[in-house]
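Worked example 2:
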Amino acid sequence: MSDLKSSTGGRGPDRPIRVVHVCESFTAGTRSAILSYVSATPAVDHYLVASTGRAGSRLDVPDKVFLGFCPLPTEFIKALATIRGCVREWSPDVLHAHSSFGGMFSRLAVRRSSDLSIAYTPHGFGFERLDVNRLVRLVLKLAERAMLLNTDVVAGCSPREARLARGMGARHVVYVPNVAGRVYRAAETSRIRGEADRGNVEASRRVVVSGRISAARDPRFVADMAREAVHMSERFEVTWIGDGDDAAKEELRRAGVAVTGWQDEEHVAMLIREAGVVVHSGRWDGFPMAILEAYECGVPVVARSSKALEDAPESVVCGDAKCMAMRVARLLSDHEERVRNRRAWSRYLTGNTPERQSGVLGEMYASLVRNEPGRHLRGARTGWAR
């Protein structure tokens, strides 16, 4: 365990709020979301307990972001013991658990009390998975419901995720909008975005998909889209930025999809900016960071229809691979269509701003420390309308 700042037990009046984040899979969108939370609350002292879980990638923890970091073991019992040890060492005010496994480990390891509040962000509830049968989904939902007994607040990353938490009887619920990291909101992005909106940029023929190659992102759907492109007059090449299941990678490559492996955030942002279109193929989500990142880079986006995007404009979602290929081809050849796509996403993402994220998180952490989450959260239960 490394701690870059000495810890003192108990919280004095002058000590900043101390938050320990626990994440079993600190990769892709969840990693980006946690880093945006840290950036949004600079007055809070943030610590991290994390691993890359099933992703099998190198654990990439940025320097000077967290005041303390501890690797999370993969073994269940060791994971619980590690979380308990970090709580004793760092004396946090809030334990912020992320995703299903991080949420389970955290809430089995420690109990909420007057000195320690527990916040939970699902980043996509496990019972929403479509790669398991109904019985497994039911078990996952019952487990989530049971864990709510040891949860002060569910901080959903979308209005829908917040509604699901309320439907299960969560004690307090708040909607914390996802926001793309600063690297995607770099200064040059404004110029690129403005030129694209005016229709003065010749679109690249590269179509990009980003994230972990897993059942949630359905690589077969992307492979089918790439095969559909071969039969079209407006052909395009597909690149998947990320890594994952070996068999899925092989299927993607057979379909002509280039797979880059994991890249650092700056390189990912560069590849997205150079793309003609970004495709999000997620079957289930909390709220896709990949869409926000592509939008901030000024690139048109087409997403696969899913419950997570049930209120998205029809013009920016598709239900099958053939429809997706046709929509992508049109965006690559029609400047006006690109402008319409950007404007539709702009209206839809109006609430996903750093200012709103900062305000909600800051108030949430402060109210948890005051042991009065309901006082703030009653006024934020519905979040912001789309």
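The chain is about 40% helix and 15% strand. The longest strand covers residues 18-23.
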